[in-house]
Amino acid sequence: MKTIERVRNSTIGRSFFRTPNRVTERDRAAGHWSNFLLHLYPVKVRKIELTFKYTAFLGVASIALFGSLLVSGIFLMFFYVPSPANAYGDIQAIQTEVIFGQYLRNVHRWSAHLMVLAVAAHMARVFYRGAYKPPKEVNWVIGVVLLVLTLLLSFTGYLLPWDQLAYWAVTVGTAMAAYVPLIGDQVQQLLLGGSTVGSATLLRFYVLHVAVLPVALIAVVTAHIWRWRKDSMLTMDADPGGADA
Fold this sequence. Notes:
By secondary structure, this protein is mainly α. It has a single domain (47-235), classed as Up-down Bundle (Cytochrome Bc1 Complex, Chain C). Helices cover 68% and strands 0% of the residues. The chain has eleven helices and no strands. It has helices spanning 2-9, 11-16, 25-34, 52-55, 58-77, 87-96, 101-128, 137-158, 164-177, 184-192, 199-234. The protein starts with a helix and ends in an 11-residue tail after the last helix. Residues 238-245 have low confidence and may be disordered.
């Protein structure tokens, strides 16, 4: 610590570190709130909320799996064209001709399956621990939205290989969407882009899978983490045994 202080107090150090030293808790809190990035986080958080015993790291696992999906998905996009004439052949080429193509497609597929399981397990843990109760009920609703987005990502990606299994699975899935009260027909039309599964359906599922849903999920995850960290300050007194971090 003394070395760090000497560096900060040197001429070069003072040119880098413009903020004054924070001595009291009030000073440290003020610096925390004035920082562009740190203001998103609470000044204090219970240590128990950062342990494996408390969370099983299911939220972290879900985000890590989503990161794996982003990286592997971007790689696959270089070799895939969302059209009925090319989709199936592109998938075969990825598996047989592209270097590491089979490996990265398997990473993408298994990350998708595991992400669904991790998000569902995370929500089950929150429910059975009663962590959805006030003052965290809003974040529970945000979590439900994240679960829906995760399932939609899995569903839209199912059609992209354009094989028989994907074709009929999406046919059944979109037919079920037609039974949604009041807006079922509109939802089915929006997904299909016509009366049956075809080129318009494949294009719409591709755009939803690689652009719309990932952007929406990133935005909602950001709000979810922000609310979790902020809400943790409201429950400080609920667990006297949990020290502050």
